[in-house]
Amino acid sequence: MEIASGLLSSACQLACGPVCQQLNYIRKLRENEETMQSEWRTLSSQKNDICTNMNTGQVQYGKTSTEAVKDWLKKVEEIEKRLNSLDSGGAHHMCCKGFCPNYYSRLKRSKKTMGILCEVKDLQEKGKPFAEGKNLFIDSLPETSSGLPATTLHGTSAERKKEEILQCIMDPEVSKIGVYGMGGVGKTTIMRQIYNQLKEKKDDFDIVMWVTVSSVFELAKLQGTIAEKLGCPLSSDETSRAMELSQALRRRRNFVIILDDIWDGVSLQTVGIPEDGNGSKIVWTTRSRAVCHSMESDREIEVKGLTREEAWSLFKEKVGGEDIVSPEIKPIAEQVARECRGLPLALITVGRALRKENQLPVWRNALQELKTSNIDQIKDMGKYVFGSLKFSYDRLSSDTIRACFLYCALYPEDHQILVDELIEYWMAEGLINEEGSIQTEKDKGHAYLKELKDACMIQRGWRDKSVSMHDLIRDLAINITKEQFMVKAGLGLKESPKEEEWVESLQRVSLMRNNIEAFKGQPNCPRLSTLLLRRWEPVPIFFGRATFSDTFFKHMHNLRVLDLSGTGIESLPGSLSDLMNLHALILTNCSKLTLLPSLAKLHKLRQLKLNGMHSLKELHHGLENLVKLRHLNISHGGWGSFPSGVLLKMPCLEILLMESSRWRLSYGCNANAEDSSTIGEIIRLKKLTNFSAEFADVLAFNSFINKARESELLRNLDYFLFALSYKNEGHIVENENMEKVTLPATANIMEIRDYNFIQLSDIFHWDDLRQLIYCKLEGSKEMKWIGKNGEIVFPSLETLRLKYLHSFEGLCKEKPHEETLKNLRKLHIYCCLKLKYLIPNDLLVNNLQNLEEILIGHCHEMEDIISCKTSATMASLPKLKKLILWKLPALTSIYQGKLVCDSLCTINIQDCPKLKNLPFLMNNVLLVGMSIVVSEEWWKAVKWADPQLKELFQPSFEIIDELTCLMIHGVGSRRVGHTIRIGKLDPHEFDLEY
Q1: Which of 81, 127, 299, 740 is least surrounded by CB atoms within 10 angstroms?
Q2: For the chain, what is the domain count?
Q3: Please, which domain of life does this record's source organism belong to (predicted)?
Q4: Does one domain contain both 688 and 601?
Q5: What is the DSSP letter of 739?
């Protein structure tokens, strides 16, 4: 009975449970709906927050949502649809025309509401990580655990270059940086180091990206690579890809994109890389500076080779260390390393080829191979080094540019190639088409040379207006031309190449800088167009006279360029007279040559250089036949006189140089017939643009200037240089009635040497000096001031050089006029023994604000550079870059107060024992390029106006010996001779010897 009662009770409970639950659904419908609506609002808010974060990530940062969050949002949307459909059924909750509840409908609705409520709560729980920003996006830029593999930088020069590039990257004013240099110099190695460093920091840039571009540029591939690194999908439409990529990059706060190995200018806009700053940086490496220009870089940084010490250190490492380089091998190994000329790629390749090699003959052979440009036997040199450099050669824009490049290999190794001379060779060879004027063709030559320099195939020389070839680049050129060129320049040969070496295929031969005394035989070289036999320049070194067999030039009918400068020849073979295709005959400094063979057949001759030929007695017949002659130079030599009318038979003459020749042109009763005829013919030369000559006196010079003005010759002259004697006795000029020198209105340079005068107004009218840009005064014993009475002095002058002025006391005696030296950039003072104070404070404050360079030497009484009679404690030279002081034993002060020099980057102080303080203040310290050369003792003892500068400049401090100091300053022996020189030249090229 009890068992039956229990079963009945359990059955009743089971039956009543569902009934009660059903009744609760019906009874709590409204309550359930309100709960559900509240939870839905919470979920909806959660969804809105997540959508906002997603939108921000997608729009601003180009991020891609994860599949999980997309699925979550989809489920939320489905819930919302079900809720909407649930609301539309609310009218069916009543029956009997609304007077009685429809319990079935209410039960059904309440169950659905509770089901949705459970799902809503579940989605709320699953959405919490999304609301916290977790798992919302796929990583937009996959981060690697380590950077790019990069070799160690060798030497401090590469480290300094790395720091210079990093400074530019961190500079907010710089957004585009071009890093250029020749192949194998280490650009990529430095940039990999920078890339890895930026990746490690992660604080400065959101994205640091490395993209290798290489020689074959493919736009779609480059865009795809960048997009892949961003995690940004791109469409297939070419016009849309750049816009999509640009938008994706703009959404980043800032980025660094490094484009490695660009060969041609890339339009960043076409790629889709924004260029409008926003803290982002684009850096690229290239072998061509022209690429940097075309891409409008804000900074261009050249990477150069290693120093000799750094190169030797790297080379030793690659060959196996000190143990391999025995005392016997070391001298040869050092020479081998030097032959690589600081190129890391070559040092590594040659070093590995000789790794652990301890046989002396092998080392000697390697050195010989490198010296003779025959490096086929050195393992991997052709593959890695020459292969890399040859690619740069192949990428030059035209065959003409390549031919111009190969021509440079005719010069000796390490030679400083004068730019004008090289271009003149190109012109004579026909590599530059003859069109317009010589200047037009030279301009084209400079454009060719710029392309070669921009491509790092030619380097800037250490001499002004010169270039040079890296040894390995030269080796490349010689290997390319070994079938057409014979280059034995600078080898110290005493004998001419054997006759069998003069093969028919030769086009160019260079035997310059040798000591060959006899050129024998009858070379059969019908294709030869250039023959360079010159010995040395600018000062000829005579090892003996050179001779030629009578028939030496017989089979060289195609010869266009013949240079015999400095060869010491006493006579030339008659076969030279038959070189009817000759365009340039250069006999500079052939001072033993007394006669020339006939020039009558040389109808195509354009250039004839006879300068420095002091022994030439007369010119053989045929000068009148040179109807196409454009350039004639007889300066520092010459012969008796021009035959009457001969210059008028040279209507193409553009350059006529007669300075320091045997002529001293004169007028009036003292003039001879030849002088008068020659001057008249010169004035009638319509194409003359470059002219130099000497005049016997002021009257002759002024008379010529007046006649030249009437004929408009002066207006047509682009360049001229005139020398004249003012007063042969050389005593003080005191006669105010004496005729003053008339300066042509276009003259911009003036030099006066060894004339005694009190001030310049003794010789010139002050107004004539206003246009001068360059002025050098040397050797006057009485001159005390540039201008002593406050005259307007040199308002246009940029360079002022004063030497051996034994009574000189200063630039200005009275308060200077406001225009005095206001444009002066370079001030050089040397051996002015009574000079105590150079620059008065008034002149400094009001006029010298453009001064960039001060060089002062051997002024034994100088006490102050800048004298200040007022209580001023602060002054400024905002553009001063270089200060060089040497041999100033009495100097105690540069300036008594503090001197602000924000541009100063070179300080060189030698033998100034009383100078104990440096007054410099610098608001903008730029350490890149800073050079301080002083003695170690002085550096330790000197006091700075700003003590922190000494610590900042410590890494730039170096010691230098006096001999090197003199080489840097360019101090040479004093030249004498009573001369006034007046000209229209490039003032930056004039009189480079200080």
Answers
A1: 81
A2: 7
A3: Eukaryota
A4: no
A5: P
What is the model's pLDDT at position 445? 94
The mean-pLDDT minimum among 122-131, 484-493, 949-958 falls in 949-958
d(CA 417, CA 837): 41
Residue 5, domain member (yes or no): no
Q: What is the pLDDT of residue 727?
A: 53
Confidence at 564, pLDDT banded by 50, 70, 90? very high
CA-wise closest residue to 363 among 320, 403, 325: 325
pLDDT higher than 70, residue 377: no
The answer to whether residue 654 scores a pLDDT higher than 90 is yes
Same domain, 180 and 38: no
Q: Calculate the average pLDDT of the chain.
A: 79
Query: To the nearest 5 percent, what fractions of the chain are helix, strand and coil?
Result: 35, 15, 45
CB atoms within 10 A of CB 558: 15
Is residue 148 in a domain?
no
Output the six-digit token pair for 106: 């209410």
Residue with token string 């639950």: 21
Task: Considering only the C-alpha atoms of the chain, give the largest distance between any 2 of them, rounded to a whole number of Å.
Answer: 168
**Domain identity same for 732 and 792:** yes
In this prediction, residue 189 has a pLDDT band, given cuts at 50, 70 and 90, of confident
Same domain for 494 and 564?
yes
Compute the C-alpha angle 46/47/53, nearest 5°. 95
State the burial class of residue 899 (Cβ atoms within 10 Å of its Cβ: 0-12, 13-18, 19+).
buried
**Helix, strand, or coil here: 709?**
helix
Residue at a domain's end among 689, 722, 755:
722
How far from the centroid of its chain's Cα atoms is residue 306's Cα? Answer: 17
- pTM (predicted TM-score): 0.68
Check pLDDT > 90 for residue 523: yes
Residue 474 exposure: Cα atoms within 13 Å on the Cβ side: 26
Has residue 145 been placed in a domain? no
Using one digit for the tens of pLDDT, what is the confidence trace for 292-339?
Answer: 888 888 888 888 888 888 888 888 777 777 766 777 788 888 888 887
What is the C-alpha to C-alpha distance for residues 606 and 600, in angstroms, rounded to an integer? 14
Identity of the residue numbered 488:
K
In a domain, 146, yes or no: no
Q: What pLDDT is stored for residue 209 in this prediction? A: 86
Sign of CA dihedral 682, 684, 690, 696: positive
Instruction: Kindly state whether residues 852 and 871 are assigned to the same domain.
Output: yes
> What string of H, E and C letters represents the secondary structure of 414-483?
CCCEEHHHHHHHHHHHCCCCCCCCHHHHHHHHHHHHHHHHHCCCCEECCCCCEEECCHHHHHHHHHHCCC
On whether both 419 and 540 belong to a single domain, the answer is no
Give the burial string for 266-285 (b: 16+ CB within 10 Å, else e). bebeebbbbeeeeebbbbbb
Task: Note whether 492 and 522 are same-domain residues.
Answer: yes
Say how far apart CA 991 and CA 994 lie, in whole Å: 7
Domain that holds residue 37: 11-138
